[in-house]
């Protein structure tokens, strides 16, 4: 009898030890996430930071990041992504369309989340895209309501006749945006012309051409333009050409107004998706692309003043929110 009791006690202890060991292993699980960011500019940087903050908030020290920047080169994106695949990272964040395209070409097993990608159907060549990519791919989109951007331009510049649309021809999502905005502007009665540059090398010459040919310029969420706003501003400002743009970072550098999202919030939402995949086992193949929940009318106060443009009261000056937060902290 005593032997039976002792055996039962030992068996229970063994089960408890196994359970404790299993729980300990679960607690000790760690994740490595590879981040490929196309280039350095405000929007992409904010998205990356938001993504990292979300995962760190959820996982703490259990997640580490291998963060690399491709410096605007799609071939470098491929090199970076291939290194992630060789290292067998747990998940890849592809920040911007060329990074996403490189990731899709490199692996069909490691989960891939895109961010700062405007239209996944265009980026990945998917006809009749229904909102879910499938396979090992999902993510977030920075697509703003393009018809509302056209309406914004119309509100600010109702007397303009000709609108130029400046974009990088190497960025498929930029082409999609300018085509859509052009159609919306033409319905509003504007004469429109597309001005494409192939890369930063011919940006100045194309911008110089458009600076004297149009009344207003529109620039979409274009990465090459975002990385070269100083060039654009140095040409368009002296020419007196106002620019309506697709996102806040470009507006800060050379635009007068934008209907923009928070790229930090977009990145944070992507990080929350990553947590659900890594820690909760959610099936990425069934996860639809997520979109920014809200858009804000913002303006560049300095450029508007220099160009003599009056902005409606429902617009927020770029930097005003950050200044208000700083004042609240110091009070």
Description:
The chain has 331 residues and is of the alpha/beta class. It has two domains: 144 residues, Rossmann fold; 143 residues, Response regulator (Rossmann fold), CATH 3.40.50. Helices cover 50% and strands 19% of the residues. It is built from 14 helices and 13 strands. The strands form two sheets. The protein has a seven-stranded mixed sheet, with helices on both faces. Strand 3, helix 4 and strand 4 form a beta-alpha-beta unit. Helix 2 runs parallel beside helix 12 and helix 3 crosses helix 4. The radius of gyration is 24 Å and the shape is elongated. The relative contact order is 0.13.
Key traits:
Rossmann fold, elongated, 14 helices, 331 residues, disordered C terminus, 2 domains, alpha/beta, seven-stranded mixed beta sheet, six-stranded parallel beta sheet
Tell me briefly what this model is.
With 331 residues, the chain is of the alpha/beta class. The protein has 14 helices and 13 strands. The chain folds into two domains: 28-142 and 263-291, Response regulator (Rossmann fold); 146-260 and 300-327, Response regulator (Rossmann fold), CATH 3.40.50.2300.
Helix-strand layout with pairing:
Layout: H1 2-27, E1 31-37, H2 42-59, E2 63-69, H3 74-87, E3 91-95, H4 97-106, E4 112-117, H5 120-124, E5 137-141, H6 146-156, E6 162-168, H7 172-187, E7 191-197, H8 203-211, E8 216-219, H9 223-226, H10 229-239, E9 243-245, H11 248-254, E10 257-260, H12 263-278, E11 290-291, E12 296-299, H13 301-307, E13 316-317, H14 320-330
Parallel strand pairs: 1-2, 1-3, 3-4, 4-5, 5-11, 6-7, 6-8, 8-9, 9-10, 12-13
Antiparallel strand pairs: 10-12
Helix pairs in contact: 2-12, 3-4, 6-7, 8-10
């Amino acid at each position: 009898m005593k032997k039976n009791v002792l055996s039962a006690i030992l068996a229970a202890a063994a089960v408890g030890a196994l359970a404790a060991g299993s729980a300990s292993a679960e607690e000790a699980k760690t994740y490595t996430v590879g981040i490929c960011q196309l280039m350095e500019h405000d929007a992409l940087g904010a998205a990356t930071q938001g993504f990292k903050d979300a995962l760190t908030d959820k996982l703490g020290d259990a997640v580490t990041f291998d963060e690399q920047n491709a410096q605007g080169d799609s071939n470098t994106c491929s090199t970076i992504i291939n290194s992630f695949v060789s290292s067998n990272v747990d998940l890849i964040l592809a920040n911007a369309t060329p990074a996403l395209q490189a990731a899709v070409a490199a692996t069909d097993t490691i989960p891939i989340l895109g961010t700062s990608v405007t239209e996944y159907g265009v980026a990945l060549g998917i006809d009749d895209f229904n909102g879910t990519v499938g396979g090992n791919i999902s993510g977030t989109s920075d697509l703003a309501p393009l018809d509302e951007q056209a309406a914004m331009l119309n509100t600010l510049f109702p007397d303009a006749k000709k609108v130029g649309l400046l974009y990088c021809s190497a960025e498929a999502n930029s082409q999609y945006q300018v085509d859509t905005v052009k159609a919306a502007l033409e319905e509003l009665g504007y004469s429109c012309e597309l001005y494409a540059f192939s890369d930063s090398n011919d940006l100045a010459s194309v911008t110089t051409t458009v600076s004297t040919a149009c009344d207003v310029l529109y620039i979409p969420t274009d990465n090459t333009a975002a990385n070269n706003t100083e060039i654009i501003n140095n040409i368009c400002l002296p020419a007196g050409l106002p620019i309506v743009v697709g996102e806040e970072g470009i507006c800060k550098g050379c635009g007068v107004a934008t209907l923009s999202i928070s790229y930090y919030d977009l990145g944070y939402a992507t990080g929350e998706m990553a947590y659900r995949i890594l820690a909760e086992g959610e099936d990425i193949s069934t996860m639809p692309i997520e979109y920014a929940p809200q858009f804000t009318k913002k303006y560049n106060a300095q450029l508007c003043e220099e160009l003599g443009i009056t902005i409606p009261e429902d617009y927020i000056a770029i930097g005003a929110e950050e200044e208000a937060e700083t004042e609240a902290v110091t009070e």
